[in-house]
């Protein structure tokens, strides 16, 4: 932060600003920062709360959410079972592409080490 202040002072002094101008701009900058922080505070709190919620989701819920919200799997019924870091997929799919997509989503979910496929083709 100190380095930024020094750079701003050097730039402004070269631009013909005197100390009084620099102080005035500094006060304006602080006010803008304070108002911005006050205005965005509720959003930051919501965002922080959401991130905490995501962090506390279990592995099963994370995989289930990914499968549930993927458009390619919209017409499927897939259940997720988790033991340690191993995920088991059970349910029915309509196409082999859906099998590949479900396995891919599960494999690339943070925390998953192995996926077992027990999906049946309808």
What shape does the CA trace take? rod-shaped
Average pLDDT taken over every residue: 82
Instruction: Write the element-wise H/E pattern from the N-terminal end onward.
Output: HHHEEHE
Largest sheet: 3 strands, mixed
User: What is the total number of structural domains?
Assistant: 2
CATH architectural group of the largest domain: 2-Layer Sandwich
Beta-strand fraction estimate = 15-25%
Helix content: 55-70%
CATH topology of the largest domain: GMP Synthetase, Chain A, domain 3
Overview of this structure, please?
The relative contact order is 0.10. Strand 2 (86-93), helix 4 and strand 3 (114-121) form a beta-alpha-beta unit. Helix content is 61%, strand content 19%. The mean pLDDT is 82. It contains four helices and three strands. The chain is α+β, with helices and mostly antiparallel strands. The N and C termini lie far apart (61 Å). It is rod-shaped. It folds into two domains: 2-56; 59-121, GMP Synthetase, Chain A, domain 3 (2-Layer Sandwich). It has a three-stranded mixed beta sheet, with helices on one face.
Question: Descriptors for this entry?
Answer:
three-stranded mixed beta sheet; rod-shaped; GMP Synthetase, Chain A, domain 3; 122 residues; single chain
Per-chain topology:
Layout: H1 2-14, H2 19-56, H3 59-69, E1 77-83, E2 86-93, H4 96-107, E3 114-121
């Amino acid at each position: 932060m100190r380095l930024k202040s020094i750079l701003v002072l050097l730039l402004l002094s070269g631009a013909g600003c005197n100390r009084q101008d620099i102080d005035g701009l500094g006060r304006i900058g602080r006010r803008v920062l304070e108002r911005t922080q006050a205005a965005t505070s509720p959003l930051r709190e919501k965002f922080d709360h959401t991130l905490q919620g995501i962090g506390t989701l279990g592995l099963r819920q994370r995989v289930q959410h990914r499968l549930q919200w993927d458009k390619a799997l919209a017409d499927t019924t897939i259940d997720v079972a988790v033991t340690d870091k191993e995920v088991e997929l059970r349910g029915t799919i309509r196409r082999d592409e859906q099998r590949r997509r479900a396995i891919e989503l599960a494999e690339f979910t943070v925390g998953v080490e192995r996926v077992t496929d027990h999906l049946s083709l309808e």
